[in-house]
């Protein structure tokens, strides 16, 4: 085969397919210690391990949310944490039909000679780390590559380096039993229009799939986590239907049907925007050979965080808020979302941060 | 858009989609003067213009055949020929709802320093030629790139040269109103097994779609004409279901859903083999976002040619033989072929010619 078929092939295919189950999606709860610190700061909560554990316990024990989720991406610390009555998080998730995943990249570094473009690090000893994560219960991984749109960006160097990094990461994961989520995020920053975003997205995705082919990655055992195709952050907004049309067209032109599911990142979109856009894509009457679902971080947790504010007495309320977003996005994967899931103003709040760094 | 916006965009999309109509396919009748000479020689017919014209008239006026066809590929001479009552062939085809196509490549030449690998020529003045062909009534074009499997073949050079030649041809066609059929044929010659063929096919197709993306080709206005994935000519044969499985999987891993149809070449397969394999693919229960059909030359004409033998008195019988194959393949595009086509003389005969040159 052109694809490397190792001892985990059947399991990878099965796991990837399960994660892409219509009606389910991924909670991205893999904020690094530094990043979760910023979130905590916004609600005046101290960035210590017990608080990080408390937040994740709040999310993972929210009643009614498990049927909406097929996976949760974790940061390394969280992979080894337990609930307050001593049950490992990974066990809790697995028992509830939610597959634990692990963020394996080590952040971005600048590409010398470019205008602030970056590449992602984390390949050193990645195989060994994946083996350990597999033993700890993880069954999928995530690696975030970042590109930007500018006068001369993304450059060919940036596209090639990020695509090859993703491909190398992907095959190492598959050698060690983890389904790789391939994430080539093109930041929304800029004043470009939606057509420009579409053109760049198509060029980047074409390069990514060429690299995956060269590295013998088994596409049936992968997932794609792309940006939606939208106007730049400094440009006028457009309707969800327009976003859906451009996004699905870009994917139809680049993502082989062998890929079982596409799990969108939310970028700086508000909770409600992200859900409405996902919903519009699933309502689009055009042939889509992969399921379209979510892998949201901020767009699932924003209002939940605010409702919690670090206080035990707010947990039930926060969990109810979280359930609302989970259900809304579950409906969106089926094209059934009718909008206005919560009257909460936080749900409509843009989560855009210029030059966003994890 | 990543793809360029041709003034012909809507027309290209409509024509490509039309060629992909279920129940229809393409008759490849574009044999060059030299090649048709070999066919005529095999039935003791002189290679003169009137005979070449008579053969094509026989095919295009076969009662009941044209409804099975969405397109016919022509050689340049034929594009300007008429039937015996003075009706231009393109008129006969058009009024029966069959799109005329035109072969535009100028054959292969060797790549120095390789082991007999080739590239295809024909780019010089191609734009002008396409304009002329469009005026003459052509609405799609075809360009055959050839690769082979060997110890060190196909080489990276051969893959790259042929993929980028196809991409350049494709965008020039689209600039001038012709839907490009992209044909990266991997010859069946060799003793390799089906897995090797699958691996090479996936690698070649991935390179083709990267090249098409680089050249801003509008995929919705193209067609793909690949080889089926089979064992080498010197290897043991396998069942149609096995060929179907490996072929469709290779396509799922490489061909974006934006491509409306895939029209297989028959290579050296017999008429019956080619039909059965196509039928098995259309019966396969798996993701196929493109229509799977035929673009057969020898596998549609072989028994017809033998029955005709160049004699006027055999025309009716030859036309009946041709209709049998047209109907069989039409059914195969729907997965409805029962294998009961009345086998004409030579229908089960292998059409493999070692190291086949057009």
UniProtKB/TrEMBL annotation, chain A:
Q: Which domain of life is it from?
A: Eukaryota
Pathway involvement? Carbohydrate degradation; glycolysis; D-glyceraldehyde 3-phosphate and glycerone phosphate from D-glucose: step 4/4
Q: What is this protein called?
A: Fructose-bisphosphate aldolase
Q: What Enzyme Commission number(s) does the record list for this chain?
A: 4.1.2.13
Which family does the UniProt entry place this protein in? Belongs to the class I fructose-bisphosphate aldolase family.
Gene name as annotated:
LOC104717589
For this UniProt record, the keywords arranged alphabetically read as follows: Glycolysis, Lyase, Schiff base
Q: Which organism is it from?
A: Camelina sativa
Q: What class of enzyme is it?
A: lyase
The UniProt catalytic activity note for this protein reads: beta-D-fructose 1,6-bisphosphate = D-glyceraldehyde 3-phosphate + dihydroxyacetone phosphate
TrEMBL record, chain B:
Which CDD domains does the entry mention?
Answer: FBP_aldolase_I_a
Look up the record and name the pathway of this protein: Carbohydrate degradation; glycolysis; D-glyceraldehyde 3-phosphate and glycerone phosphate from D-glucose: step 4/4
> Enzyme class, one word?
lyase
- Please give the NCBIfam families that the UniProt record associates with this protein: FrucBisAld_I (NF033379)
Superkingdom in the source lineage: Eukaryota
Encoding gene, per UniProt annotation: LOC104785880
InterPro entries for this protein: Aldolase_I_AS, Aldolase_TIM, FBA_I
Q: What is this protein called?
A: Fructose-bisphosphate aldolase
Family designation: Belongs to the class I fructose-bisphosphate aldolase family.
The catalysed reaction is:
beta-D-fructose 1,6-bisphosphate = D-glyceraldehyde 3-phosphate + dihydroxyacetone phosphate
Pfam families from the UniProt entry: Glycolytic (PF00274)
What keywords would UniProt list here? Glycolysis, Lyase, Schiff base
PANTHER family reported in the protein's UniProt record? FRUCTOSE-BISPHOSPHATE ALDOLASE
Q: What is its EC number?
A: 4.1.2.13
UniProt xrefs under SUPFAM superfamilies: Aldolase (SSF51569)
């Amino acid at each position: 085969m052109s694809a490397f078929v190792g001892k985990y092939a059947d399991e990878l295919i099965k796991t990837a397919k399960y994660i892409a189950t219509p009606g389910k999606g991924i909670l991205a709860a893999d904020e690094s210690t530094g990043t979760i610190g910023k979130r905590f700061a916004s609600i005046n909560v101290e960035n210590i391990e017990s608080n990080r554990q408390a937040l994740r316990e709040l999310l993972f024990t929210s009643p009614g949310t498990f049927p909406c989720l097929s996976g949760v991406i974790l940061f390394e610390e969280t992979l080894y944490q337990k609930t307050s009555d001593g049950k490992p998080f990974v066990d809790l998730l697995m028992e509830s039909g939610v597959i634990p995943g692990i963020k394996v990249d080590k952040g971005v570094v600048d590409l010398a000679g470019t205008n602030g473009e970056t590449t992602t690090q984390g390949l050193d000893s990645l195989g060994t780390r994946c083996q350990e994560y597999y033993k700890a219960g993880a069954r999928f991984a995530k690696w975030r590559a970042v590109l930007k749109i500018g006068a001369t960006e993304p450059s060919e160097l940036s596209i090639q380096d990020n695509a090859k990094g993703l491909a190398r990461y992907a095959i190492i994961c598959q050698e060690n039993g983890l389904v790789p989520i391939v994430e080539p995020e093109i930041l929304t920053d800029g004043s470009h229009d939606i057509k420009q975003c579409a053109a760049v997205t198509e060029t980047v995705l074409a390069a990514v799939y060429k690299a995956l082919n060269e590295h013998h990655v088994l596409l049936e055992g992968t997932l794609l986590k792309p940006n939606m195709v939208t106007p730049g952050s400094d440009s006028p907004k457009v309707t969800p239907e327009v976003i859906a049309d451009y996004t699905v067209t870009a994917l139809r032109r680049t993502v082989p049907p062998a890929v079982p599911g596409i799990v969108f990142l939310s970028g700086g979109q508000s909770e409600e925007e992200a859900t409405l856009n996902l919903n519009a894509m699933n309502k689009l009457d055009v042939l889509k050979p992969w399921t379209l679902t979510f892998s949201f971080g901020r767009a699932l947790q924003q209002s939940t965080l605010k409702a919690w504010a670090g206080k035990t007495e707010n947990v039930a309320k926060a969990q109810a808020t979280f359930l609302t977003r989970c259900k809304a996005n579950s409906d969106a994967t089926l094209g059934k979302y009718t909008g206005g899931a919560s009257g909460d103003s936080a749900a409509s709040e843009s989560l855009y941060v210029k030059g966003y760094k994890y | 858009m990543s793809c360029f916006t041709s003034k012909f965009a809507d027309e290209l999309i409509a024509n490509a989609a039309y060629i992909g109509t279920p129940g229809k396919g393409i008759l490849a009748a574009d044999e060059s003067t030299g090649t048709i000479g070999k066919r005529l020689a095999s039935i003791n017919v002189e290679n003169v213009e009137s005979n070449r014209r008579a053969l094509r008239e026989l095919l295009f006026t076969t009662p009941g055949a044209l409804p099975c066809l969405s397109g016919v590929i022509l050689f340049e001479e034929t594009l300007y020929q008429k039937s015996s009552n003075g009706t231009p062939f393109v008129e006969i085809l058009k009024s029966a709802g069959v799109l005329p196509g035109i072969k535009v490549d100028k054959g292969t030449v060797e790549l120095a320093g390789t082991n007999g690998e080739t590239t295809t020529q024909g780019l010089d003045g191609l734009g002008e030629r396409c304009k002329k062909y469009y005026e003459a009534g052509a609405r799609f074009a075809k360009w055959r790139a050839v690769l082979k499997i060997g110890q060190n073949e196909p080489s990276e050079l051969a893959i790259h040269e042929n993929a980028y030649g196809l991409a350049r041809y494709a965008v020039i066609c689209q600039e001038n109103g012709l839907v490009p059929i992209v044909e990266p044929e991997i010859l069946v010659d060799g003793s390799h097994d089906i897995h090797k063929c699958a691996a090479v096919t996936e690698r070649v197709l991935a390179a083709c779609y990267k090249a098409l993306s680089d050249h801003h080709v509008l995929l919705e206005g193209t067609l793909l004409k690949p080889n089926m994935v089979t064992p080498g000519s010197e290897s043991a044969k396998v069942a149609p279901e096995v060929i179907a499985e490996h072929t469709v999987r290779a396509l799922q891993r490489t061909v974006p859903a934006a491509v409306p149809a895939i029209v297989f070449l028959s290579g050296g397969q017999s008429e019956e083999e080619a039909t059965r394999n196509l039928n098995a693919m259309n019966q396969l229960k798996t993701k196929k976002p493109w229509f799977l059909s035929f673009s057969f030359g020898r596998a549609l004409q072989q028994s017809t040619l033998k029955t005709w033998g160049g004699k006027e008195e055999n025309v009716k019988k030859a036309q009946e033989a041709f209709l049998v194959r047209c109907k069989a393949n039409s059914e195969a595009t729907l997965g409805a072929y029962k294998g009961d086509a009345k086998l004409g003389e030579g229908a089960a005969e292998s059409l493999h010619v070692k190291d086949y040159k057009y």
